[in-house]
Design brief:
Layout lengths: L1 H20 L30 E6 L14 E11 L5 E7 L7 E6 L7 E2 L3 E2 L5 E7 L2 E14 L12 E7 L1
Antiparallel strand pairs: 1-2, 2-8, 3-7, 3-9, 4-6, 4-8, 5-7
Length: 169
C-alpha cells in the first residue's frame, strides 16, 4: 500500500510541476471561501454623448450645363443625425471656387423638424441650408443642385466638391 500512495504523491507532484511550467496560476482552482460572496458590485463609468453628422448617399453627381443655356439640375440624398436637444443646422460650401462665369445653387427642403433657408448660392464660404433640427438619427433627406454657365464661360470639364456639415446653431 505504501508504494501505491507514494506513486500517487509523485504523480500529483509531476502534475503540479507541469501545470506551473505551463504558466497557469495555481491559485485559481484553490479558491478561498473568503473570496466568494452572495453578490458583488462592479463600478461602471458611463458616457452618453450627443451624436451629430451627415452622410451623403451615392458616390457622385454628374451635371452638364450648356453655356448660356438653362440651368442643369441634379438631386442628391443624404442621412442626417443630431441626437439630443441641441438645435443644429446643415451647412454647405464648395471645396474650391468655380470657374468665372459658372454659378451653382443648392436647396434642401424643410424636413424632420428643421426649417429650409431656400436656395443658396454656393461658394467657398459656408451657407445654411436647414436650421433648427434635433432629435434625429439617420433621417433621410434630399437636396437639389442647380448649375448655370453664362455666355462668357469657356468650354471645358472638371469637378467641384460640395461639402456638407452639421454645426451647432
Amino acid at each position: 500500500m505504501e508504494s501505491h500512495r507514494t506513486g500517487f504523491v509523485w504523480i500529483l507532484a509531476v502534475l503540479i510541476l507541469v501545470v506551473s511550467a505551463e504558466g497557469i496560476p495555481l491559485s485559481g482552482p484553490f479558491c478561498s471561501p473568503l473570496d466568494a460572496a452572495e453578490s458583488a458590485a462592479l463600478p461602471l463609468e458611463v458616457s452618453i454623448p450627443e451624436y451629430w453628422g451627415v452622410h451623403v448617399k451615392g458616390a457622385s453627381v454628374s451635371m452638364v450645363a450648356m453655356i448660356g443655356g438653362k440651368p442643369a439640375e441634379s438631386s442628391f440624398s443624404f442621412l442626417l443625425s443630431s441626437t439630443g436637444n441641441t438645435p443644429r443646422k446643415l451647412t454647405a460650401r464648395l471645396a474650391a471656387p468655380l470657374p468665372a462665369g459658372m454659378s451653382m445653387t443648392v436647396e434642401v427642403p424643410s424636413a424632420q423638424g428643421g426649417r429650409s433657408t431656400g436656395p443658396q448660392s454656393l461658394g467657398t464660404g459656408e451657407v445654411d441650408l436647414l436650421t433648427g433640427f434635433r432629435g434625429l438619427f439617420g433621417a433621410g433627406g434630399r437636396g437639389m443642385l442647380k448649375m448655370k454657365g453664362s455666355n462668357s464661360l469657356a468650354p471645358g470639364a472638371g469637378q467641384a466638391v460640395l461639402v456638407l456639415a452639421v454645426r451647432d446653431m
